[in-house]
């Protein structure tokens, strides 16, 4: 049996060797006649090498990484609104990030990083002014290069036209806080101020000392003023400035129930004392910083000094805006 199997294997081995010889001969003939050769066995690569990668994809990766690196270098974190021990309620301020997709889309045509083509997006804070308990507000965010004029109006009609002209000439908007009884007596002038694009706030009705008023009396003063402003100008104020800066926690709570926040000031012109105009301007401008709110009234020193205040404040790099603009979390470019 063993001999039979051995013979069988030898026979089959012989046949295989013969087959391989014929295959080799055939290969040689093909080389001689056509120049074609069968390459040696080579396993297929499992991953493409660098020459197989699409060059635009490589550029995309490099460009995107450059944009990411730029974002990490220049990103600015948002600032939450907070209650400060000294300045009380302070609004938040948006952070800044690179809009990765938009920036890449703008640069992908050239495939080159260009910081002039970077597109940014603002990142809001986690805590907003509206999230804080009712507190007075003395200033805007200290990182925001903006200043606001607060103009309390209960008298001084003769100086208002000049103030409005200077503001208009310099394309500057202010927030005027109206005494309710003044609006009732001067509806035309109130409308002129509103129509000039200025913001309107509440300054109580009869210039009371609210620190000495009860809660019902305070509510009457503030609500009556809102009612006359609404009836005359068709709007309801969202900012309240207590007359003479006199207030207590009841004042703030009442204003809050009427959907108004209580506004004080950072810098006082003390213009009602009739200081020398140049001295007043110098003192005020020297104290201005990010987020400052400047208190003033329609007086001769303010009317005469308004233009210099505007130009000098802008020369220091600050933008002028309304209280709403200053309290906004929106960044100044």
Explain how this protein is built.
With 333 residues, the protein is of the alpha/beta class. It is built from eleven helices and twelve strands. It has helices at 2-34, 55-74, 100-107, 160-169, 180-185, 187-195, 215-233, 249-257, 277-287, 300-315, 323-327, and strands at 82-84, 88-90, 95-98, 120-123, 146-153, 175-178, 199-202, 239-240, 261-262, 267-268, 293-296, 319-321. Strands 5, 6, 7, 10, 11 and 12 form a six-stranded parallel β-sheet that branches. The radius of gyration is 39 Å and the shape is globular.
Offer a few descriptive terms.
single chain; 333 residues; alpha/beta; TIM Barrel; six-stranded parallel sheet; two-stranded antiparallel ribbon; 11 helices; 12 strands; 13% strand; globular; disordered N terminus
Strand % is 5-15%
Summed up, the helix count is 11
The whole-number mean of residue pLDDT values reads 88
Assign an overall shape: globular
CATH top level label of the largest domain: Alpha Beta
Sum this structure up briefly.
With 333 residues, the chain is of the alpha/beta class. The protein has helices spanning 2-34, 55-74, 100-107, 160-169, 180-185, 187-195, 215-233, 249-257, 277-287, 300-315, 323-327; strands at residues 82-84, 88-90, 95-98, 120-123, 146-153, 175-178, 199-202, 239-240, 261-262, 267-268, 293-296, 319-321. The strands form four sheets. Strands 5, 6, 7, 10, 11 and 12 form a six-stranded parallel β-sheet that branches. Strands 1-2 form a two-stranded antiparallel sheet.
